[in-house]
Amino acid sequence: MRCFLPALAIFYLAVMAPAAACRLPPEALLSPPEKILASLDTQAQPVLKAMDDFASALEACYDAPMGPLELAEIRNGAAALRDQIDGARAMAEARVRGNELNFEALLSSDLWQDLESLRVAGAYALAWANLSRATREISAEVRRKALVGATEDMRALTLEFSHPVIVQRAMYGLATAQIEGGDVPAAIATLDQLKASLQRGGQKPLEEAVNLFYGEITAPGYTPPIVSAGAAATLERDFSQEAGVADPQILRAAEQALSAGKPAAEIAAVLAPVFAPAFEGQPATITAAFEFLAGDKKLLAAADYPPVNAVHTMDRAFTTSQFATVRENWRVVKPYYNLLPAKLKRGVDYQLGVALVNLNEAARALPFLRAARAGYKTREQQALVDKFIALARLSSDTDPDDELLALAQRHQTLPEIEPRQPLTLDQVIALRARVLLARHAATQGKWRKADKLLSGFVPHMPAYKMLTGMRVRLIARNVAEGLKTGEAAANLEKTARGGQAIYTIWRKSKCPPGCVAGDETPVHRAAINLAIDAGLSTGFFDTAYASYELSGGDVVLLAPAAIGYLVAQGDGPGLIALLEPAEEVRASRILSAWKVFLRELQETEKDAARTEKDAARYLFLRDGLTALQGRPLANLREALVQINLARNAPEEALRIADLLAQDFPRRPSAWYLRAEALRVNGRNLEAARALSSLARRTPPDDPVGMGARVGLAAIFTNLGEKPKACAMVEKIFARTQAAQNWQKAIDVFPLLTTWERQARSCATG
Description:
70% of the residues lie in helices and 0% in strands. By secondary structure, the protein is mainly α. α22 runs antiparallel to α23. The longest helix has 29 residues, at 68-96. The radius of gyration is 33 Å and the shape is elongated. Residues 1-19 and 228-246 have low confidence and may be disordered.
């Protein structure tokens, strides 16, 4: 058993298991372009998630137990998906073609961001599909050409700077393609760049993978995968595919040497002139060569040419628990996978499956483990593989379905754990089962039962840190459910503080030998949720938030809830840090959440019955964010002006509007709001001068220019110059496309509807 149990670092999978293994695109993503657009307009998240899952799934194609024909089908599916996305983008562009303002609006819209995300994720999926297909080519020339294309696909993705996560992952893919092409210096240079990027920020699992990859290819004596010269190569000796033998004389000499107990290296040297070229031959010839060499373990070990040496290296590395070496030598074996005789294929499947489980890639391990299970004939062998299959399945981070729940119940009995001793396979399986059962209990509201399943472990036990982190996650879930059902705030706060205490212990706890802490990201996320839902201190929130971001978590997903929490807590520095991230795409996505918050705030502030809490929130937004800059500040001031206009506080509205126009003179909304603030303060002439200045700078057909001129007409109406106002209104709306352009204007600036109503009143009274 010793080759199976060391380094059973499975608890890392308490976090997010990889997406389903290499597969065709789901039907939902292959919808016609118009349906894709409609989905993005109504509910974009399921489409974006489906694409993210598919892109992740195609990463798994690189290591999947699949032949070239299967991968060709998946590659074609990825290419078809790319075409569908391109069609949706073209259709979106066609909607606004010929209108510069609308086109600019499209480029800054959520729809366009979503389409861009789909495009880049689709290109990423196709790049991995192309790379995976290329690695199955036995012919060196065909492989070389395919790798050139896959390498360029990955290189192009490293320039998608608005998608930093994809850029980093594509750099990893680029290094992989470079290694497959035999260019070790280029791969090292790529990984050097990637490591520097990850130091500035990135996903922790990727950082760990990069460090492992880098250490492997920079190790002394490392050689990249080598593929034979080509399947059509001419052999020096005839290798009979019917008999599965080479030159009879040479084989007889080899057999005699084997019988006489000669060193394997000596025998291999005799056979090398025949068998080394054999792996450049036809598929049947390659299989026959494998069959002969696999007849004796020593002979197989002595063959120092690819791919035979890689099969032996996998075997040797597996027995010493060098699971990364097993995985990396799979690269060399991969093109020959379908040509392996049954015995060798079964061994490769089992070794790679167990290695991937130990390398925290359980989802990718399952296809190999199931293939190994089908290949083994004895009950003992099948039972052992079944344990690893169960472990991989139990490593899911989702609420279990009935089938998975039944599996967890069968394995929940926990063998006694000895302190400071490595976990056995049965112990690991039982612990993973307890985690799933705890999740299930939580879904039923049985919080004490869930917590009990994860409790009773002391810090020096290998499972402690992972189980403690899971307790934090379930407590956060408990508080969230209590908030939905209207549980008393005092009770929720008490529960949350318990979670806060456990989180603090979890952060400080160390892993003993043989322990893997698990992915920290969901635990940090749970702590953030505790702070938000129960109104815990901002110090606790800031610690969890910073840790979450550092571990690679997507803070954008937290933005809506975090904004409301930080405003309620009056945490100016924390809110500013959230609203002003360095990365532009992230800043744009968080800005969208900020705008939604401000719109909802305006609706709340219209209520005459404002509470003391409402007043404190307003003062914080007005006076507590003096260091805020850029678009977040402009949006905030616009909202504050409109709040004061709605509350009939004209002087306050004008004071803020002056600051808005002063700091953001290029925003049309700044001048509209200042003009309105001047007007309600009885300073109509100053308002008219402000709008006249804007009108002079914009064409009359432009929506912004139309808005300024309609505003002037409204002021003239108020000043009693109704004939002049009517003449202006008639002229403005008599122009070609006036109605269409005006609709665009009021969509962006709702204030203009009030001005239009006042301007058109010139014809009455």
